Amino acid sequence: MSSVLQGFTKSLAMTFVSEIGDKTFFAAAILAMRYPRRLVLSGCVSALIVMTILSATVGWAAPNLISLKWTHHITTLLFFGFGLWSLWDGIKQGGGGGSEELAEVEAELDSDLKANGKTTKDNSKVEDENKKQKRPFLTQLFSPIFLKAFSINFFGEFGDKSQLATIGLAADENPFGVVLGGVVAQLLCTTAAVIGGKSLASQISERIVALSGGMLFIIFGIQSFLTSVET
Fold first, then answer.
1. Which of 56, 103, 115, 225 has the most Cβ atoms closer than 10 angstroms to its Cβ?
2. Where does the sequence pass through the membrane (predicted)?
3. What is the 3-state secondary structure (H, E, C) of the chain?
């Protein structure tokens, strides 16, 4: 089995380039502009940590369901597939920042709020949550804002490229290192989104992120292919 350090570095790099400029990144930035940052950060990070652990667990169990050889080949194909997918996305996109994606995510959040009949209650809800800051932290876990941030990020990651890549990586690398690297990357990205807010999110170039992520996936694919050839 691969070393913890190798799994950590691969997962850290892969998750970072996948999450910067991702839909959940923009959602965290927007939520942080509307609600207390502490609750938004804790909700988003908790969801992403749970998803990372679940994905790595699925990847770790995969070699027990199918042969290790086939698992390695599937992982290699996933890396190449995600790499080409990201490169194609980068080529199609313009050279601007992430303002279009940011506006799209913000519109989706606004429509969700209106559908739930909560738009007119935002201001009073924020005031209530500010008062709750004085309560013990564990009692804040039941806050509607915490649960909203958690659910948006958790379900936003289902079927996402980073989730599938984490599954493949955990099947081929040390799962503990994959989880550790993924958690650190998620923490860095989400913290940057919450602190930087919309001003930071709007400056991110989706094209550069997509091209960088595509190149990284291709490199991982080549490395995985060469490993299979050597063995």
1. 56
2. 39-58, 70-88, 137-156, 176-196, 208-226
3. CCCHHHHHHHHHHHHHHHHCCCHHHHHHHHHHHHCCHHHHHHHHHHHHHHHHHHHHHHHHHHHHHCCHHHHHHHHHHHHHHHHHHHHHHHHHCCCCCCHHHHHHHHHHHHHHHHHCCCHHHHHHHHHHHHHHCCCCHHHHCCCHHHHHHHHHHHHHCCCCHHHHHHHHHHHHCCHHHHHHHHHHHHHHHHHHHHHHHHHHHCCCCHHHHHHHHHHHHHHHHHHHHHHHHHC
